[in-house]
Amino acid sequence: MTEQRRRRDVLRVLGGLSATGITGLAGCTSGNETGSTDSPSGATGSASPTGTDDTTATPAERSVTDAVGRTVAVPETVDRVVGLGSGALRFVTYAGGAESVVAVEQLESTNADRPFRPYTLANQRYTDLPTVGTRKSPDPERVLQADPDVVVYGYATPDEADEMQNRLGIPVVVIRPGGLTQDLRDRFFGSLDLLGTVLGTTERVETLRTYVEESLADLQERAGQVEQQPQGYVGYLGRGKHGLTFTQPSYVPFRYGGVANVAEGATGSGDGGGGGGGGGGGGGGGGGGGGGGGGGGGGGGGRKGARRIEIDPETLIQWDPSILFVDLGTESYDALEDPQYEGITAIENEQVYATMPTRDYGTNFGTVIADAYAVGAAANPDVYDVDPVEKANEVYETFVGEPVYDGVADAYGNGFGSML
């Protein structure tokens, strides 16, 4: 098709150049950079042709509207895909496109220092694929060498997507994965639906949509049956050296697991980064409210509702949660044995449990659901009468194609269950 022929022409030109990244490519294609292919955000009509014919569908192409309102002409059949940016490869996998992936970002390849995400564990071939640069600096020449039919770009702005598309001569489709809470769920399903259309996997996407909707409805119903939600706290959120006092005021597994977050509404210093499937909304029910409210911060710069925050040890002691959860994405859990915390009810009664990281290069959406069942089973076993390990394998098999709970647990050095 025309697009593919043009792509090969660009590859031949690049074959005579040294690898100079985006800057070098700009010299070859700068004539097209000012031609915007945007429609207003949320638009559904076709975009006007620009300096290239990227958005003008030929008989062998289809027009789709991506998550930022751009109209993009994609091939009738998509056999080769590259994902760039947070959530792109994850959602290609969710949508049933794993076998179409021809290259990955360096982050997604083998790295002994970084635990793997469930979709990578389920698709070991990803670790052996060529890389297309880092997550912050994708290498356009490497993308072209991979020869994808479509590039899926997570969380790109319209300008970023247009720039990449014009430089590559390859359709670039933007997704914004959203979250599993009510206020962000349309984006989650919208991104899945978009990729189902692009990849020709709409039946697979509909199967996943049904499973997610049924799982969230089940969790929400169970949460509503909890008459008095226990006061819970989750710490150690985030990969690296974050400690027990690094938490999330809107931890989604609590909302669906029937646990009142003592940090709800708290402020503190934090990175404000997304996590846990998005803040707000959720499926909480029954009695009990968050006990945090005021919560002191670990420094300035905090803002109410920040997705992850650092609090003072004194604040955690004051909150005195009756059950405590540990996100397994960090390096050490020594604070659980720190004498200053030994009077906290959860630690004193050995009600400390592990959850899998809900966030690693974007939200691990399957893990959010698996964690919600694990939280519920630990905090409200009479209502959440499920085996969390069996449920996690069911979730992972549905989301990424394989029951990889054991692999996830091995990667993080622990699994669901008591930490004391």
UniProtKB/TrEMBL annotation:
Record's protein name: ABC transporter substrate-binding protein
Instruction: Record the organism.
Output: Halolamina litorea
Ranges for domain Fe/B12 periplasmic-binding come to 80-383
**Which InterPro entries does this one have?**
ABC_Transporter_SBP, ABC_transptr_periplasmic_BD
* Origin: domain of life: Archaea
Here the segments flagged for biased composition (Low complexity) are 44-59
Could you tell me which residues belong to the region Disordered? 25-64
Q: Which PANTHER family match?
A: MOLYBDATE-BINDING PROTEIN MOLA (PTHR30535:SF34), VITAMIN B12-BINDING PROTEIN (PTHR30535)
Q: Output compositional bias ranges, type Polar residues.
A: 29-43
